[in-house]
Amino acid sequence: MSSATPIPARVRRFPVVGALRLGRPSDVWFKPALSVVAAVGPPSLLLMTLGRLDLAPYTMAGSLCALYAHNRPYAARAKVLAWVILGMLGGLAVALVSASLTRNAVVLVTVGALLAAVQKTVCDATRVGPPAHVILTFVSSATLFVPQTLGQVPGHLALAAAAGAWAWLVGMAPAPLRPHGPERRATAQALNAAAAYAETVRGGAEGAGARSAAYAAVHAAWQTLLAVGNRPSTTRRALERLVVRAEVALAAPADADPARLRSWARAIRGTGRIPRTGDPRREDDGLHREGDGLRLDGVDPRVEGVDPRPDGAGPNPDGAGPRRSDGGAHLDDDGPRRDGDLLRERDELVGVAAERAVAPRPLRSRLGPLAPVAVRSALGCALAGYVSLALGADRPYWALVTAASLYQANITLTWSRAVQRVVGNLVGVLLFAAVTPVAQLGPLALVLCILACNFGAEALIGRNYWLGSVCVTPLALLVTELPGYQPTGELVTGRVVDTLVGALVGFVAAVAVTNRRAGRRVERALTAVDRAREHAARLAADPTSTPAALEAARRGLAATVVDLRATADAAAGEWWQRALPQERVVLAEQAAHRTLAATVRRQGLLPDPGTTSTFTHTEGASP
How far apart are the first and last CA of the chain? Predict the structure, then answer.
């Protein structure tokens, strides 16, 4: 381990322009946008027909659960959506009962702040994904300030539960048409990220940022594929094989063919057959054509009943018979060679089964490191609500929700989110003032405006949070008009004041409650990388190591590298802590990448140095 001197902490600056810069839209931006419209629309229109739009906020609480888990495989999405709905109902129940028992605004703000802290902590610990705790906090906090009686609570909860069940059906609706859509998208993103890194390296640049992004994309792809457990699937196995190819490209980017990686990524979009990858050590490996009578899902044709055509395009390196020049499985009647190909293909994926057998970390161990975030959330939300009450606000939950939405992995990101929230809300109140005359034309116009804002928020928020907030703000204001129209000027003024209060007080709380454990977590992540690297290096140097052990060690080392980069980035944005060992982090990453390359070569997924490749740049496996 290097004894490099820690780099002194640089002067902290407040980014403004960078925080507002627009990014590229998500590949599937329309999925959550259409889902939320499909989930919110029917219950709201039904209540409008019955003349009970005043109950729409409760059904909307359940409908908004359709925003979650769009990146999860459908088997995992079903469970995540169910837990999100249960969590929403739990927070809503606490809020409704509290509103029924007291009208003391200070008590209600305190309850809302504690709920926000719990929701933030649990969502971060379970990595439920966007929109995370914000929707849950908005639902529970807004309900706290709606007058209730205990007798009304069961009916309101039943409305939310029914809408939540409808949202679950909406979220699962694409499964029959695209049963492996999320896995395909995650795999395509990993292949494209690996291709981008390979292009960067071939262009002569170091590409540290591209490398980290590629490893993160590959890690995310594995997490997506592993999320479904041990369900047998030929398609998923073929996708796993493609992710292995992305890992191979990361290990030796100069050897990778970016065009081929991108062609694989394009091929797995939609519902088409999966391209076969064959033997990665052959230079002429490529996509098979359907006209050849070949399966494109990466399995032996005999298993699927496809009529194989023999193609003796060159000698087999091991002398066992002819093989295809494109590196695919054998299509002749040479049984032993086919079995050898299948064994090699299985060797590439043995680590997947090993990882599936490992139990996830218990929730309690994941909650511990989030204690500073929980304290920030509780303190910031409570103070924001109290200050809003002191200023005479009628809806202090706006300030509370603003504060809750700020808290990110570190203070620097929290500042950026504060800028985005304020700018988005200020532009959003102008949009609200513009659409109010239309929304007040009648109940149908109001519902249609709410649906349009829901769609716009999800369509735009992927480019930048502030752009999505431009639609979220009028949405929140229009929801307050469901029980009855209210003066536009008062709503606009209250929203602006509460936004500024929530952002200012929330950020001050984040600065006051710093995460002093961030530096220690970097040290632990460094230790984990060193241990994983030494373990992988020993296995790679041992000629008796099994394929399962090598694959599991390689995957474990890659996961620790991703975790180290995320931990270091999060710690770099924290204030009031000692200087971070950034040079040690860089050196540990470099050593780990060299060991990953050597392990991949030891597995036979790359040619040995000085054989068939002229570009391979990897190092030995010695720790």
Answer: 10
